[in-house]
Design goal:
single chain; alpha/beta; 2 domains; six-stranded mixed beta sheet; 6 strands; elongated; RNA polymerase II cis-regulatory region sequence-specific DNA binding; DNA-binding transcription activator activity, RNA polymerase II-specific; TF_CP2-like; SAM_3
Length: 164
């Protein structure tokens, strides 16, 4: 019987002897594998006080939407931040596919690539649709963003923090 510490100390040859050639090499490589570093790290805030780190490995707008939707309080922010009456008639739920979160089927939330409700606050208050190209060219690693809901859109506003 081996403990986890014993297995971590084993050499490649030891693992090959125990597991066989192919499985031993595979096990050795898995045990020594390094975590993949994220390509882009964003810090987003729902309330302006605390921030959540968003680590993007593939720099796609779909991945950003998935990570934002996993943030605690994100759905509540959407529901509470909507002030134009869309909440009462249910259009925010159908446009965001939030109903699927509560019905137990999350399969249709990200299937339609034409649905993107994440926007970046651009110059003069313009809302720029966050696409893969925008993520790769406009969003900088380590940036701080405040999330706001405006007209059933999530707007990411860049926050300039002075580090003194």
């Amino acid at each position: 019987h081996f403990s986890g510490a014993d297995i971590m100390r084993m050499s490649k040859e030891d693992l090959i002897q125990i597991c066989g050639l192919a499985d031993g090499i595979r096990m050795f490589n898995i045990l020594r594998a390094k975590a993949i570093a994220p390509r882009l790290t964003l810090y987003v805030s729902l309330d302006g006080n605390s921030y959540n780190a968003i680590y993007l490995l593939s720099n796609t707008s779909k991945e950003l939407m998935q990570k934002l939707c996993k943030m605690p309080g994100f759905y509540e922010m959407i529901a509470n931040g909507n002030t134009n009456g869309a909440l009462e008639n249910g259009s925010i739920y159908s446009s965001w596919s939030i109903h699927s979160k509560y019905s137990g089927s999350g399969s249709n939330i990200f299937n339609d690539s034409t649905k993107n409700f994440i926007f970046l606050a651009g110059p003069s208050g313009v809302h720029v649709n966050v696409t893969d190209e925008v993520l790769n060219n406009e969003v900088r690693d380590g940036s701080l963003y405040a999330l706001e809901v405006q007209n059933a859109k999530v707007v990411m506003k860049l926050i300039n923090k002075n580090d003194n």
